[in-house]
């Protein structure tokens, strides 16, 4: 699933793991190839000497690249800039990324050890140090132990601001395990999230954890608890001194509205791609799939063959309404022509918003696509994730067995994918 988010230092480090795996595999291939060449005898003494010189030069280069980055002396501000620059220029090889992450961690340690370091600078140093150390912990056991000890030191610190780092790490672990909890444990976790928001204020990290928890509650069919959490978080975001949090409050309200749709009617209005006003009442009496999508979203396009198959199987009993989240009409139109999409699409505009700011997407707090909402004949929402087999099963429950039609070709893009730098 492609999601709306802001890239964080933690994501910047952790997203490199998949790339590193590919690099390691390539390195293994190169080593194997070099070994095979080494078995062939040199044609002359000159070739042997040249090969030896080349090997020596490469070894020297690798030694320089793998050598630890020296942490300079300087003020807290200078060291913080050094850490930021090191992270920006971390490279793409496994060795260079690990080397850079280690330097960021060590620079953070050095900043915190300065006699005249302010609390503000120390918090900034930890903010860079933690993501880098989390990354290292995933590839090195010693770093994992170092991370554990660092978090323990935060918990033992006398300053509440430092203690909060340990508290947030504990909260993140609990949120990841929310689906396995019983109802009382989940309510206790919700209360803890709100308590932290009251004591420390809302920030991007806490909002992200609250959203994850609300998602887990929704998946566990504890809809009321999830809706309440989102609305309570929105209350606190509206009172925040952080302007970005205030702006995001409406999206949290929208998420509460979307999760609360199950069993209720969905409001839908706007303008079609043809420039006509959309009449939602015309669809009453049919099962309707409301599909939030964009031309650049691989999983969205990968689901199109299945959607077409179901349209052919159920005829007039089933309809699709697309909510297009492209930034331009042109991008949508090119995709519609290529994919031969025949159903209605509602579009945004410059005045009311396009892309992630499409009015309907904002109203329902849609922050990841594809989002596929299924509405029954009476206009009541029956599913918030009607894709693939879930769509097939829901339609059969509502409309009976489908008419046999030719199955669409399988497309790997139907699998959920991580967001890329090109996603809008």
- What letter string, H or E per element, gives the SSE order? EHHHHHHHHHHHHEEHEHEHEEEH
Taken as a percent bin, the fraction of beta residues is 5-15%
How much helical structure, as a percent, in the residues?
55-70%
- The count of DSSP E runs of length 2 or more, i.e. the number of strands, is 8
Low-confidence stretches: 17-44, 59-63, 410-424
Provide the gyration radius in Å: 27 Å
Query: Main sheet?
Result: 6 strands, mixed
Termini, distance in Å? 13 Å
Strand order of the largest sheet: 2-5-4-3-7-8
Subunit organisation of the chains: single chain
The whole-number mean of residue pLDDT values reads 84
The structure class reads: alpha/beta
Global morphology? elongated
> What is the number of helical segments per DSSP (H or I, 4+ residues)?
16
């Amino acid at each position: 699933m492609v999601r709306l988010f802001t890239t964080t230092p933690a994501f910047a480090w952790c997203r490199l793991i998949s790339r590193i795996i590919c690099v390691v595999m390539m390195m293994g291939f190169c080593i194997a190839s070099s070994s095979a060449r080494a078995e062939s005898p040199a044609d002359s003494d000159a070739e042997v000497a040249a090969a030896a010189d080349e090997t020596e030069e490469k070894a020297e280069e690798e030694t320089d690249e793998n050598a630890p980055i020296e942490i300079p002396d300087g003020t807290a501000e200078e060291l913080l800039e050094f850490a930021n620059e090191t992270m920006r220029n971390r490279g793409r090889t496994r060795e260079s990324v690990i080397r850079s992450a280690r330097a960021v961690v060590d620079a953070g340690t050095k900043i915190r050890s300065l006699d005249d370091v302010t609390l503000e600078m120390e918090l900034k140093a930890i903010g860079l140090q933690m993501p880098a150390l989390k990354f290292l912990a995933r590839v090195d056991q010693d770093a994992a132990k170092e991370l554990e000890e660092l978090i323990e030191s935060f918990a033992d610190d006398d300053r509440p601001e430092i203690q909060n780092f340990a508290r947030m790490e504990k909260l993140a672990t609990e949120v990841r395990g929310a689906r396995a909890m019983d109802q009382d444990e989940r309510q206790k976790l919700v209360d803890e999230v709100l308590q932290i928001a009251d004591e420390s204020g809302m920030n991007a990290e806490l909002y992200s954890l609250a959203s994850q928890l609300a998602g887990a509650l929704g998946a566990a069919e504890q809809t009321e608890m999830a809706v309440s959490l989102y609305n309570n978080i929105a209350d606190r975001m509206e009172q925040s001194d952080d302007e970005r949090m205030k702006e995001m409050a409406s999206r949290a309200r929208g998420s509460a509205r979307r999760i609360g749709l199950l069993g209720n009617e969905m409001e839908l209005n706007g303008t079609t791609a043809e420039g006509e006003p959309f009449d939602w009442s015309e669809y009453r009496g049919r099962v309707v799939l409301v599909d939030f999508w964009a031309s650049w979203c691989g999983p969205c396009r990968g689901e199109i063959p299945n959607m077409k198959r179901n349209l052919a199987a159920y005829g007039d009993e089933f309809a699709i309404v697309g909510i297009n989240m492209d930034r331009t009409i042109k991008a949508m139109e090119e995709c519609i022509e290529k994919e031969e999409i025949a159903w209605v699409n509602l579009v945004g505009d410059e005045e009311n918003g396009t892309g992630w700011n499409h009015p309907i997407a904002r109203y329902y707090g849609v922050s990841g696509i594809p989002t596929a909402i299924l509405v029954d004949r009476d206009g009541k929402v029956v599913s918030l994730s009607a894709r693939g087999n879930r769509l097939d099963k829901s339609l059969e429950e509502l409309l009976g067995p489908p008419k046999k039609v030719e199955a669409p070709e399988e497309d790997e893009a139907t699998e959920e994918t991580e967001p890329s730098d090109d996603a809008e």
